[in-house]
Amino acid sequence: MPAALEVSAVSHFYGEKQALSESSFSIAPGRFAVLLGLNGAGKTTLFSLISRLFDTRHGTIRIFGHDIRREPGEALRRLGIVFQARTLDLDLSVCQNLSYHASLHGIGRAEAMSRIRTLLAQIDMGDRLYDKVRSLSGGQMRRIEIARALLHRPPLLLLDEATVGLDIRSRAEILAAIRELVHTEGISVFWATHLIDEVEESDHVVILDKGRVLADGRVDDVVRACGANGIREAFATLSGVASVAGGAAR
Ligand SMILES: Nc1ncnc2c1ncn2[C@@H]1O[C@H](COP(=O)(O)OP(=O)(O)OP(=O)(O)O)[C@@H](O)[C@H]1O
Q1: Residues paired with residue 62 on neighbouring β-strands, in sequence order
Q2: How many domains does the chain have?
Q3: Residues 6+ apart with CB under 8 A from 33
Q4: Could you report the per-residue pLDDT of 191-232, keeping only the tens digit for each?
Q5: Which ranges carry the ABC transporter domain (predicted)?
């Protein structure tokens, strides 16, 4: 079976500025993989390339073996994405936001409603179907965005700093719900964060710093290769920062 995501020698420039430099790694199907990097590491740039928001001019990206440039339809229908910036329409209801996304994916109305009800129940939002998005908390909006990203049943889900701005309980709940999806549905997740405490020992981790992949592999292997005392120390050493504390790097 091909990799869920394969990134090969991908570079990206904003004018003269190089934001990604010959980045390569791949993620196996059914894995929870973390893209770990400080602010400005290039995480959002990489996600913008994977989702084809930006054109990939240097290198190749494949989703389950489908090149995003040569077979964009096949590749992108296997991808769900939650961007860092909120993208729900605040003046529409939860149902309207989700139905609109379903119709973009060619999902018929009855099937869409059935999927929406199932997904909302899974994320504990079953009673908010007809509420305006504006009336939801930040954590609840994030859950709706996750449900939206899963509506077309993609086998690969990307989340860019999905817990930013949420309180500690919402963060933990969202992370746990996504980890649960990996176990129960067997989907592959690529979770971008700068928060070291979101990483678990059995995860696959890709450490990105100033546009370069500095480490790629199982967390315990990366820690061992660095001769570090844990992922916190390995990340601090690789990123060249003095310490990583309080859940974030300093
Ligand atoms: N539109 C842009 N024009 C010029 N430079 C940009 C642009 N977007 C990002 N950059 C630069 O590219 C680099 C990577 O930025 P990117 O947003 O991808 O990082 P990030 O890891 O997602 O950071 P954050 O966690 O802060 O969102 C940074 O140096 C950033 O300043």
Answers
A1: 6, 67
A2: 2
A3: 27, 188, 189, 190, 191, 203, 204, 205, 206
A4: 999 999 999 989 999 999 999 999 999 999 999 999 999 999
A5: 5-235
Q: Is the CB of 40 under 6 A from ligand 1?
A: yes
Question: Which atom in ligand 1 lies closest to the alpha carbon of residue 46?
Answer: 18
Best mutation site among 7, 17, 163, 195 for ligand 1, i.e. most ligand atoms within 8 A of its Cβ?
A: 17
If one counts every other C-beta atom within 10 angstroms of the C-beta of residue 51, the result is 19
Q: Which of 134, 153, 172 is the last residue of a domain?
A: 153
Q: Give the residue carrying structure tokens 């991808």.
A: 79
Residue 78, ligand 1, Cβ within 6 A: no
The candidate with the shortest Cα–Cα distance to 97, out of 109, 88, 106, is: 88
Residue pLDDT, tens place only, 127-179:
999 999 999 998 899 999 999 999 999 999 999 999 888 888 888 988 998 99
Answer with the one of 108, 138, 153 that is the final residue of a domain: 153
Asked whether the beta carbons of 52 and 76 are under 8 A apart, the reply is yes
Residue 162 domain-assigned? yes
Q: Which atom of ligand 1 is nearest to the CA of 44?
A: 22
Q: What is the CATH number of the domain that holds 27?
A: 3.40.50.300
83 in any annotated domain = no
Burial 206-222 (b: 16+ CB within 10 A, else e): bbbbbbbbbbbeebeeb
Clarify whether residues 149 and 168 are in a common domain: no
Domain encompassing residue 113: 88-153
Helices (H), the chain: 43-50, 72-76, 94-104, 109-122, 138-150, 168-185, 219-226, 231-239
